[in-house]
From TrEMBL:
Keywords: DNA damage, DNA repair, DNA replication, Hydrolase, Magnesium, Metal-binding, Mutator protein. Transmembrane segments: none annotated. This is 8-oxo-dGTP diphosphatase. One of its GO terms (biological process) is DNA replication. The keyword Transcription does not apply. It comes from Geomonas terrae. GO terms for molecular function: 8-oxo-7,8-dihydrodeoxyguanosine triphosphate pyrophosphatase activity; 8-oxo-7,8-dihydroguanosine triphosphate pyrophosphatase activity; 8-oxo-dGDP phosphatase activity; 8-oxo-GDP phosphatase activity; metal ion binding.
């Protein structure tokens, strides 16, 4: 049997020196873990295009997609995921959570205080290393 491998974009959204963290809802995979918002890349869709679409769908905001960080591949018990992170900023809209149960803006130095999805951890460490 071929193991499921999903390709996902995610946004490290910056505002006023803080970074957005989103908590998955209880009904999602990895329930109540924190993550960078984003979603699965659809067939024929570019990474940046996917990220913009997902943030409108999940949070009702339009973002400017900035520099990419290093992609991360992680194996969970049921599937593999490759995350394609980008540093982003909100250009329009107010955040409305359509899928997540909570969100918080944190300074980069405090991000690891949350219970993050494992695949997001290397992204946090790389991002913290930029300062």
């Amino acid at each position: 049997m071929v193991r499921k491998h999903v390709h996902v974009t995610c946004a490290v959204i910056e505002r006023d020196g803080l970074v957005l963290s989103a908590r998955r809802s209880a009904s999602m995979n990895l329930p109540l873990r924190w993550e960078f918002p984003g979603g699965k890349i659809e067939p024929g869709e570019g990474r940046e295009e996917c990220l913009k679409r997902e943030l409108v769908e999940e949070m009702g905001v339009e973002v400017a997609v900035g520099r990419p960080l290093t992609p991360v591949t992680h194996s969970y018990p049921a599937f593999d995921v490759t995350l394609y992170p980008y540093i982003c900023s909100i250009v329009s809209g107010e955040i409305t959570l359509h899928e997540h149960s909570a969100m918080i803006w944190l300074p980069p130095a405090r991000m690891l205080e949350l219970d993050w999805a494992d695949a997001d951890l290397p992204i946090i460490l790389e991002y913290q290393g930029l300062f």
